[in-house]
């Protein structure tokens, strides 16, 4: 009787422990599944939409649409880059590389924003190039208009002489004007594609002058003076920040060397000889 009671109690306790273990296992499995779903959702969101589509289209325009890519082809290129990174990571792990398989989604997360970072760099570099070429373009317009040309006659000459990124944008605007668009609309298209406030101010002044019938030469001279003033202010800001940069460089590089050559030998001599 006592043996049967002991066996029954042991079986009951074993069943209770198994039930508790099963419950804990189910809770742990649900937690793991939830974490996997959150990780998968994060990966899908990062892969699908790092930059909103409208902003991506504007960024492609400011970068000059490298390779003639549109939004859809750029997204396909991003997916191809991410898939290539995933394949290379799997290949590394398959041939005995250090790490485990959890670095595969991490490599995808790392590779997802890289194309957009490169695109932002291209847009910033192209914007700087256009900003550098813009004063020369306005000076050419002033010279051509002062020589007796109209604005429509001066734009092709200035576009050919300017060249570069701004020249290509001007050639596109001239093609739009030849297709029937107005001069103001075509120039505003350049400002929208580049996103530069200097070009937008120039387009606003030119379109206002064309609508009001004011002399375009005076407007161009004023725009050239304003652009030179902005350029001089940018150089002054750079010169003003130079002193702080030199101070930081002196503290980081020259002061430790002077300390080692002058103060450190005296400290070591004092510690060696004592009082």
How would you characterize the overall build of this protein?
The chain has 275 residues and is mostly helical. The protein has two domains: 120 residues, no CATH class; 146 residues, no CATH class. It has ten helices and no strands. The chain starts with a helix and ends with a helix.
Question: Keywords, please?
Answer:
single chain, 275 residues, mainly alpha, flat, disordered N terminus
Brief overview, please?
With 275 residues, the chain is mainly α. The chain has helices at residues 2-48, 53-62, 71-94, 103-111, 114-146, 151-162, 164-178, 183-194, 197-212, 216-273.
- What is the domain tally? 2
SSE arrangement, N to C: HHHHHHHHHH
Distance between the termini: 91 Å
Which structural class best describes the helix and strand composition?
mainly alpha
- Low-confidence parts: 1-7, 42-50
Percent of residues in helices comes to over 70%
- The overall average pLDDT, rounded, is 75
Q: Which descriptor suits the 3D outline?
A: flat
**Strand-residue proportion:** under 5%
Give the number of helices.
Answer: 10
Biggest beta-sheet profile: none
- Count of extended strands: 0
């Amino acid at each position: 009787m006592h043996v049967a009671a002991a066996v029954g109690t042991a079986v009951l306790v074993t069943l209770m422990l198994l039930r508790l273990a099963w419950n804990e296992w189910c809770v742990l499995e649900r937690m793991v599944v939830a974490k996997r779903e959150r990780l998968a959702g994060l990966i899908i969101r990062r892969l699908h939409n790092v930059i909103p589509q409208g902003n991506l289209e504007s960024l492609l325009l400011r970068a000059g649409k490298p390779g003639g890519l549109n939004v859809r082809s750029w997204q396909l290129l991003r997916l191809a880059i991410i898939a290539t990174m995933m394949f290379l990571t799997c290949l590394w792990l398959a041939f005995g590389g250090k790490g485990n398989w959890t670095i595969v989604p991490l490599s995808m997360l790392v590779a997802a924003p890289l194309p957009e970072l490169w695109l932002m760099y291209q847009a910033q570099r192209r914007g700087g190039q256009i900003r550098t070429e813009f004063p020369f373009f306005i000076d050419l317009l002033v010279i051509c208009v002062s020589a007796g040309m109209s604005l429509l006659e001066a734009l092709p000459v200035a576009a050919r002489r300017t060249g570069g990124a701004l020249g290509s944008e001007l050639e596109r605007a001239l093609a739009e004007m030849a297709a029937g668009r107005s001069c103001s609309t075509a120039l505003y298209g350049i400002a929208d594609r580049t996103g530069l406030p200097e070009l937008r101010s120039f387009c606003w002044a030119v379109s206002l002058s064309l609508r009001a019938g004011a002399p375009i030469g005076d407007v161009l001279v004023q725009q050239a003076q304003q652009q030179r003033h902005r350029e001089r202010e940018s150089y002054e800001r750079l010169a003003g920040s130079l002193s702080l940069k030199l101070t930081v460089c002196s503290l980081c590089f020259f002061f430790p060397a002077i300390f080692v050559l002058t103060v450190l030998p005296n400290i070591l001599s004092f510690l060696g000889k004592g009082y």
